[in-house]
Amino acid sequence: MATPSIRMFRRLEGLFCVYKPSGVHWKLVRDTIETNLLKGLDAAPSQPLPQEVRFLAHPVSETEAPKGLALSAASVPVLSKHPLVTGPEFQHIRVGVGHRLDAFSSGVLVLAVGNGNKALNDFCRTRVTRGYTLEGEFGTATDDFSHTGRVVERSTYGHITQDKMDRVLAMLEGANQKALLMYSNVDMRSQEAYEMAVHGLLGPEGKSQPILTGLRCVHFQPPNFTLEVQCLNETQKYLRKVVHEIGLELRSTAACKGVRRTRDGPFTLQDALIHHHWTASDVIQAIRQYHSKKDQKYSHTQIKDPAFQSTEESTTTTRCNETGDEAAVGTIK
Questions:
Q1: Among 47, 90, 116, 246, which lies 20 to 30 A Cα-Cα from 330?
Q2: Within this chain, do residues 57 and 183 fall inside the same structural domain, yes or no?
Q3: Structural domain boundaries, residue 176
Q4: Does residue 333 belong to any structural domain of this protein?
Q5: Which position among 31, 42, 102, 282 bears the catalytic label?
Q6: How many Å apart are CA 116 and CA 125, to the nearest integer?
Q7: CATH of the domain at 250
Q8: Which GO terms describe its molecular function (predicted)?
Q9: Does one domain contain both 12 and 74?
Q10: Per the domain annotation, does 307 fall within a domain?
Q11: Looking at per-residue confidence, does 71 or 228 come out higher?
Q12: Is the confidence at residue 309, as pLDDT, over 50?
């Protein structure tokens, strides 16, 4: 029979996301969540101690028994099973971390508990795009492309306009679209490439160079500007370098003031748990909401007409039998 702690742990197994603040290492976030989850599991009500029958001796008067002792059967708790003797039921819990953020970045950080780590590995292997908000400032260049680095150059920025910024962003986005097609390892003239592009599955197989799939300026007030970026296989250092290169393309300099991840696949800022909600009960609720969203998305993709569904299934089966390798390429597992 499962104990309350074990039943609670089973509800904790899955994927969820938290909001990692800037200036905090991701390991500290993971360790804090592990500690909070262990506290929640150990605070679950414990089962009553098992009972055992023992014969207890108690003294009697000399007139009742010649030896002065009598035995009586009694049910007593088994103290060897007491939590103060055995210790907490859960002494370690594994929390896995998905696509990591460096210490100076903030935003969505996907985590997993228990068997959810298997789903996390599959999630990290899929071609999911991530969204970022980049804060930049014209006028300075630093050795690490961030505003906290050592200043190596200063320049003017009065000649930069919104139109010039948009033209540079369009040029960079076009160059990255060509790189996306090149690393996709699919014949662009094939039907397979068309279907993958329609479903948003077109992307590099495995690891590749960072690719920007979307880039636009959402705020422009020199010297400050804000970019929204959609990308694959990126690092936060690479994104800071992108801000630096944009400044160079505009015949100026620029440094990155902040990197915030707004989306990691299906996880968004609205799903992220802030520090005050890194508790077992809130994590259970977040995992439940993620599974309900996934089930709803799956149900919406199902075909409601049984006749059409059976026809499509037979067609899909025929295609898989004829070209099994080709069908496997377009499927994300």
A1: 116
A2: no
A3: 129-264
A4: no
A5: 102
A6: 14
A7: 3.30.2350.10
A8: pseudouridine synthase activity; RNA binding
A9: no
A10: yes
A11: 228
A12: no
The CA distance from 193 to 202, in Å, is: 7
pLDDT higher at 74 or 152: 152
Co-location of 151 and 249 in the same domain:
yes
| Residues 190 and 277 both lie in one domain | no
Give me the number of domains the chain comprises: 4
Q: Which residue has the tokens 């002792």?
A: 69
Would you state the structure tokens that stand for residue 102, as one six-digit string? Answer: 């460096």
Residues 225 and 150 grouped into a single domain: yes
**Considering Cα of 62, then 63, then 65, then 66, what sign does the dihedral take?**
positive
Q: Are residues 229 and 284 in the same domain?
A: no
Mean pLDDT of the chain: 82
8 Å CB contact between 217 and 168:
no
Using DSSP's 3-state secondary structure scheme, residue 151 falls into: strand
Distances in Å between the alpha carbon of 289 and those of 35, 273, 325? 23, 12, 35
259 assigned to some structural domain: yes
Q: Is the pLDDT of residue 62 over 90?
A: no
| CA atoms of 215 and 107, how far apart (whole Å) | 18
User: Which of residues 252 and 330 earns the better pLDDT score?
Assistant: 252
Question: Do 239 and 190 reside in the same domain of the chain?
Answer: yes
* 185 and 65 share one domain: no
**By percentage, how much of the chain surpasses pLDDT 70?**
78
Q: What does the pLDDT read at residue 38? A: 93
pTM of the predicted model as reported, rounded to 2 decimal places:
0.78
Confidence class of residue 263 from pLDDT cuts 50, 70 and 90?
Answer: very high
Cα 88–92–96 angle (5° rounding)?
Answer: 150
Q: What is the pLDDT of residues 28-39, one digit of tens each?
A: 999 999 999 999
CB atoms within 10 A of CB 75: 8
The Cα 155–Cα 158 span in angstroms is 10
CA of 210: how far to CAs of 174, 179, 236, 241, in Å? 14, 9, 10, 12
Task: Please indicate whether residue 325 is annotated as part of the active site.
Answer: no
Q: Which of 10-24, 47-61, 123-137 has the lowest mean pLDDT?
A: 47-61
136 domain-assigned: yes
- The answer to whether 267 and 110 are in contact (CB under 8 A) is yes
